[in-house]
From TrEMBL, chains A, B:
Residues 1-147 form the HTH marR-type domain. GO terms for molecular function: DNA-binding transcription factor activity. GO terms for biological process: response to stress. Transmembrane segments: none annotated. This is MarR family transcriptional regulator. SUPFAM superfamilies: Winged helix' DNA-binding domain. Pfam families: MarR_2.
Amino acid sequence: MDHTRWLDEEEMRAWLAFIPTATLVARELDQQLKEDMGLSHLQYEILVHLNAAENGALRMTALAERLINSKSGLTYQIGQMERDGLVRRRPCEWSKSGVLAEITDEGRAMLERAAPGHVEKVREVLIDVLTPDECKAIADGLGRVRDRIIERNDGGSCW
Amino acid sequence: MDHTRWLDEEEMRAWLAFIPTATLVARELDQQLKEDMGLSHLQYEILVHLNAAENGALRMTALAERLINSKSGLTYQIGQMERDGLVRRRPCEWSKSGVLAEITDEGRAMLERAAPGHVEKVREVLIDVLTPDECKAIADGLGRVRDRIIERNDGGSCW
DNA sequence: CGAGAGCTGTTCAAATTTGAACGGCAGGAG
DNA sequence: CTCCTGCCGTTCAAATTTGAACAGCTCTCG
C-alpha cells in the first residue's frame, strides 16, 4: 500500500515557489552586497545581529543560533571579519569558557553604509513584488513554520 | 537626505519569516534525506529533474539552470552521483560539445524509495503547517517573485 | 571558406561549509 | 571537595561551492 499523501496542485505550486525563490533571492542579495560592499550576506547578517544586541556583542553560540549557522562555520567567519576589523573577540565576563563577538565602530560604519542598498534590493526583488495580503500570509504562515521548527529542535541538539 | 524606504513592521515580519524559514526547512529536508537515504537535497533534486525529463536525460547547462546551481558545481555533483551509479553521462547526439546527464535504473529506484519520506517531511515541516489561503498566497506571491528574477536574469549571463 | 563572438562542460585553486573530535570550564550529585 | 555530565568555542580534515580560466564546438557574418 502507498500511504503517502502526495502534494496536490496548489501545494505543489507553493512548494515549488518556496525553496527555489529563497535560493534566488539569497543569491541576488549576496551579489549586491558583495559587489557594492565586499560583504557576504552572512557577514552582513552578523553585523545586523551584533549591532542590534545589547552591547553590540553576543556570545558565539547565541549568535550562531540566531544566524542558523553551525558553530564552526561562525568561528571561521568571525575570524575573517576580525581580520577585516569589522568585529572583535572579547572574553565573556561571567564565564571563563565564553567568548563574545563584538561589533567595532568600523563594523557599525560598514553596516550603515551597506544597509540602504541592501534594503533597496530586498524591496526590489521581494517586498515590492508582493501584495500586502501576500506579505501578511507569508509573515504569518512562514513565521509559524519557522517557530515550529525552532521549538521542535530546542529539545534536541545543536550542530 | 535619506531616500531609503525602510521596511514597515509587516514587511519586516515577512522578510524575517522568509529566508530564515527557507534555511531551516532546507536543513530539515537535507538531514532527513541524508539520514534515510544518504542523499543530499541537491542530489535528490537532480534525480527529480532527470526523472521528469523527456528521456530521463538533460544537458548539463539546462539541468544547472533548473537547479539554480553553478555549472561547475553541477559537474562536481554529477561526478559523485555517477560514481554511485545513480546517473550516467552520455554525449549529446546533435552537438559534439554537449553532454547529457541521464538517470539510471538504480537512480530511478533510489528516487522511488526516497520520495515518500521526502514528501512526508515537506508536509510535516511546511505544507501541513500552512492554511490553504497562506499556501495560495505563497504560491502566487513567491511564484511571481521567482519568475521576475529568472526573467530579469535571462537577458544577462549565467555563472 | 574563415574570423569572431558566444556556447558547453570541465578544470583548477581558493573560499567556505560540514561534522566529528578536542580541551577547557560550569554546575550538580555524591 | 570530586566525579561526571554537559556546554563552549575551536580545531581539523574532508566535502562542497565558487568563480575565473580554459579548450573545443557552433553559428553567423563577411
